[in-house]
């Protein structure tokens, strides 16, 4: 349930970030966002700082590196492509996580998990890609390709987070991962033409995404993934475009329409199939018994 709330926060702020990019360049926005989140976590988990060990710090750095890549690709890509395509391509992480699990664990996903993934992917397509508009790799613009890199990075982040939190707990790695992402975002600013116009809207976007969508959300994810298999976490995150559409309906009066409604049902159906029929116990046992590498 907490992962669902996290997904709601991400989906509800998709348009907020898109609008903020008109005033702030991607790496500047993300460096500010991550800095706010890092300070918040240092205050919240201040008693945990002294308990950070070398292995937990290493785990947090690995998580932070994938977090950095995910947001670097996504935000830069979002400035060059449409929100609908960005949401669909980011959602490809739903498909990639079970594939990563299969490769590292040397086993095939259950047929129910595969069915849930396919249903969720079909729903993502219907919700985010307009009718008659295909998705061809050969015709992808630069923003689409960057967002594809985002999907790979977030899939790896989900997978690595599951391992690191089981081994080290969620507080130490939460602090280190966000601090790592903040440093990497700041170092990456020279890669773009920095741009920053402080307005009430851009300041709100930085504070809200930093405190709620980063500090709180990724701490909750790190805690929850101690108990939730990576494949199911990815499927829950497939709810993001559903929540984005619902938020747009409430705030902007946008309607899903028949195509979008069918897509939402497919996504929810995919999650239910995986949760109720997938081999959650077997997958959890396999991950826990797999040797963990620092």
Per-chain topology:
Elements: H1 2-12, H2 14-20, H3 26-44, H4 54-78, H5 83-90, H6 93-105, H7 111-128, H8 142-168, H9 170-188, H10 200-224, H11 230-237, H12 240-252, H13 257-277, H14 280-289
Helix pairs in contact: 1-10, 1-12, 2-10, 3-9, 3-10, 4-8, 4-9, 5-7, 5-8, 6-8, 6-11, 7-13, 8-9, 8-11, 9-10
Q: What is the rounded Rg?
A: 18 Å
Give the DSSP E fraction (strand runs of 2 or more residues): under 5%
The total of beta strands comes to 0
* Total of helices: 14
Number of domains as seen in the coordinates: 1
Q: Find the structural class using helix and strand composition.
A: mainly alpha
- Dominant shape: globular
Task: Please give the share of residues in helix.
Answer: over 70%
How many angstroms separate the termini? 30 Å
Largest sheet: none
